[in-house]
């Protein structure tokens, strides 16, 4: 049986790895949606229109519906240009995509969020808001992935994040116990976990931090 997957954020650090991993699976068909033309394959759609007419917009690229939807979207205030622009991308676009996917029959939604989601600061409040609103849509299964500092090479330069990655690697030996969830984690590990989560038959909402992601990725590699 083929699992029909809708993906947004497929040009980012985690998303392009997820797209590549799923492309190697014979039991999945992935429809990747992008906001602009890029070197990566994908369907370019108008995300502003998606916000106003979610199901109708998504149905044009996924007429047969979907089983699983995955959001790997993530930006920063610096990259987006303002708090409002960041919220538009990380909350409004993701929620519109999820609303459309649910209308097209998806039973599972996998959301890449962040460690500390819902905590202080605009970035974490935004992550908490999208987690809350996705859970309220009525998917049978919601998997929320909360990685710490992502380690890996981005095609789009983020100088402050590059500094953070080097600091995370230097502090890695100290990040033990409860602090481990805030430590660095390879983007490949996160992507491998997302691929492993696709199509699970359980219901409810699950949240995965660094330790969970590393465990699931190891299990998937050994299976």
Word description of this protein:
By secondary structure, this protein is an alpha/beta fold. The chain is 43% helix and 18% strand. The protein contains nine helices and nine strands. It has helices spanning 15-23, 47-52, 54-59, 77-80, 83-103, 122-135, 159-171, 187-197, 210-222, and strands spanning 3-8, 28-34, 43-44, 68-71, 108-112, 141-145, 149-151, 184-186, 204-208. The strands form two sheets. A seven-stranded parallel β-sheet has the order 3-2-1-4-5-6-9, sandwiched between helices. A two-stranded parallel sheet has the order 7-8. Helix 6 (122-135) links the parallel strand 5 and strand 6 (141-145). The chain is globular. The model has no long low-confidence stretch (mean pLDDT 88).
Q: State the oligomer.
A: single chain
Shape: globular
Summarize the main sheet: 7 strands, parallel
| Helical proportion, percent range | 40-55%
Radius of gyration: 17 Å
Q: What is the count of DSSP helices, taking H or I runs of 4+ residues?
A: 9
Number of strands: 9
Distinctive features:
223 residues; two-stranded parallel sheet; alpha/beta; globular; 7-stranded parallel sheet; 9 helices
In short:
With 223 residues, the protein is of the alpha/beta class. It is 43% helix and 18% strand. Strands 3-2-1-4-5-6-9 form a 7-stranded parallel β-sheet, with helices on both faces.
Please outline the helices and strands.
Blueprint: E1 3-8, H1 15-23, E2 28-34, E3 43-44, H2 47-52, H3 54-59, E4 68-71, H4 77-80, H5 83-103, E5 108-112, H6 122-135, E6 141-145, E7 149-151, H7 159-171, E8 184-186, H8 187-197, E9 204-208, H9 210-222
Parallel strand pairs: 1-2, 1-4, 2-3, 4-5, 5-6, 6-9, 7-8
Helix pairs in contact: 1-8, 5-6, 8-9
